[in-house]
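Researcher: Let's do a round of design. I'm pasting the structure tokens now; please hold your answer until I've finished.
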């Protein structure tokens, strides 16, 4: 009887062990289908902390098993720091090999506030990430723009959030645009800014893009936003200089001093010629600039102009505006 129990116990342990081995092997070798997931390995990260980061990013399915593989292969001290891009079908050994080899196929790209989509795409493509014309074709495709923003818009101008990005060299233009637009909405959500009323928000975004281009110093943005809103309330033309030169953006040209003839240029964004707001933004504003439109500084001013330091001088009416300009230029 005892012998029978020993034999049954032996086979039970053997079967359980085989099943456990099979399950562990399955977890290790089953590839994860990854769509350009970035993960940063920092200097000083241990095998455990790296396993945790990869698990939290859904790059691996089991944190402990990955750590045990690191220990088994004795590579915990050879894992290289950097931003890693994981894409395609990768099992745990594939993932570990990528970090051991130091295969860092990414580029850091900084998009400053106030860049138009044209200059944004040139900045990214100049880093070797994607093709400028493909970015432009996608961004100007209303169906694509609407599908990734949820807004009924004709292009992505204003929705490409200014930030520092880590892009992979093998990322498609579509992946890059989706990343930037997703960041835009993530930033809005973090700032508790609602986009539920899409028409209202889109108009605020347009005005914020004008303020972003018009103002150098952040502390002036709420006041300038308030002046633009005062003008709109009185059915006055905005007469914002950056809107006049927006038509030059596809050519990467810039005019520092506007002439009268330029302000007469009948482009759809020229607020010296059109009433109200332009049809869409002229650049990508920061969340802080959108806040200045939502919470403007109230004032009696209707006019302003820049002084020699890049700050602004304000006036209640046109006569006062002209007089102050003469005083500054005297």
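Researcher: That's everything. Go ahead.
Model: Designed sequence:
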């Amino acid at each position: 009887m005892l012998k029978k129990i020993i034999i049954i116990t032996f086979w039970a342990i053997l079967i359980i062990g085989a099943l456990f081995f099979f399950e562990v092997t399955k977890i290790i070798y089953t590839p994860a289908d990854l769509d350009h997931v970035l993960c940063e390995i920092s200097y000083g990260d241990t095998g455990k902390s790296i396993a945790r980061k990869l698990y939290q990013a859904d790059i691996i399915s089991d944190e402990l098993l990955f750590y045990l593989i690191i220990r088994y292969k004795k590579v915990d001290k050879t894992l290289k720091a950097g931003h890693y891009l994981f894409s395609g079908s990768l099992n745990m050994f594939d993932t570990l090999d990528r970090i051991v080899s130091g295969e860092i196929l990414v580029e850091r790209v900084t998009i400053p506030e106030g860049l138009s989509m044209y200059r944004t795409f040139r900045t990214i493509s100049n880093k070797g990430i994607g093709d400028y014309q493909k970015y432009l074709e996608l961004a100007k495709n209303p169906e694509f723009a609407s599908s990734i923003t949820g807004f009924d818009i004709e292009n992505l101008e204003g929705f490409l959030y200014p930030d520092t990005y880590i892009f992979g060299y093998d990322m498609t233009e579509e992946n890059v645009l989706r990343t930037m637009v997703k960041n835009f909405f993530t930033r809005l959500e973090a700032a508790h800014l609602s986009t539920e009323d899409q028409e209202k928000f889109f108009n605020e975004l347009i005005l914020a893009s004008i303020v972003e281009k018009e103002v150098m110093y952040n502390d002036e943005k709420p006041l300038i936003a308030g002046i633009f809103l005062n003008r709109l309330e009185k059915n006055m033309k905005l007469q914002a200089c950056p809107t006049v030169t927006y038509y030059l953006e596809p050519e990467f040209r810039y005019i520092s001093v506007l002439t009268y003839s330029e302000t007469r240029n009948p482009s759809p964004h020229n607020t010296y010629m059109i009433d109200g707001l332009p049809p869409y933004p002229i650049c990508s504003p920061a969340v802080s600039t959108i806040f200045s439109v939502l919470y403007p500084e109230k004032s009696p001013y209707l006019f302003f102009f820049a002084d020699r330091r890049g700050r602004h001088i304000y006036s209640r009416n046109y006569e006062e505006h002209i007089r102050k300009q003469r005083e500054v230029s005297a």
